[in-house]
Amino acid sequence: MKKLLLTIAACAALTSAGNATVLVNETFADGNRTNQNPPNSLAWYSSAGTANLTVSGGVMWDNTPNTTRGGVAYFNAVTLTIGQTLDLSFDLTAGQSLTGGGYAGGFIIGLFDSKGLTDNIQTADGSQPAANISTGFSSNLYQSSAGSGTQYLQLQERTGATGGTLMAAAGLAKLNASGPNTNFLTTGETYSYGFSIERTGETEAVITMTISGGDLTDAMTLSFTKTGTDYFTFDTIGFSNSSSATTGMQQVGLSNIQLTLIPEPSAAALLAGALGLLLVARRRR
Known about the structure:
This protein is mainly beta. The chain is 13% helix and 45% strand. The protein is built from 2 helices and 16 strands. The chain has helices at residues 2-19, 266-284; strands at residues 21-26, 45-46, 53-56, 59-63, 68-79, 85-98, 105-113, 135-144, 150-158, 173-174, 182-183, 190-201, 204-212, 220-227, 233-242, 248-262. The strands form 2 sheets. Strands 1, 3, 4, 6, 12, 13, 14 and 16 form an 8-stranded antiparallel sheet that branches. Strands 2, 5, 7, 8, 9, 10, 11 and 15 form an 8-stranded antiparallel sheet that branches. Helix 1 runs antiparallel to helix 2 (266-284). The longest helix is centred in the C-terminal third of the chain and has 19 residues, at 266-284.
């Protein structure tokens, strides 16, 4: 009997894990950022010159001294059905992190839909489309609160109505009140960063961001339920980082980037239920 119960649990777990689809598994093992061969490698295009986005030791560094820089990459488009989650996770390393506050910027990363339009797709370093109408959602590790040395979290929506470049601040509208404050991230520390979009209804999605690890005592998490949306198709990862001469992170590193399509939990639950019925039938014999 005990053996059968263990089999039920194992089958349920295998069903859930087995149905998850890895869309991106970028480790920069090839030592560069220009090879488009998903899921193991994506071509990442810098928003500026080639020197602003470099790869070293399995880490892609966004070098942003006193300015805003970022990158973009494309994966095979997916459309979420109800119950599915698109989960983006990676390691974030703070390089040349500065104390202080008052700079209206931060580290932003999001998932977007280019709609397959050429005018929305970047094809080389520095060649950002100036009238990008991509839609989607993003997360912001915001660096503000002048003089307090604090950070907080934000979730954002890109409607595409304002055009501009993909990660332009004018095109990213804040979805909710800011999340928990914390001290600035520490230079040299690596943190676990998670960003997910779960479709919970015909026109509803739950957007969540989480930062943990490194020298953080507690994880920082922020979620928002977006209603009245039809943004469920995604094919783009976009990010940017901003700093000034005295505030923000002038360099950030991204590594172990993984994007996974997770099925609705009911699939595993149904299997467990079916096996449970078999167990009941067996006991009645």
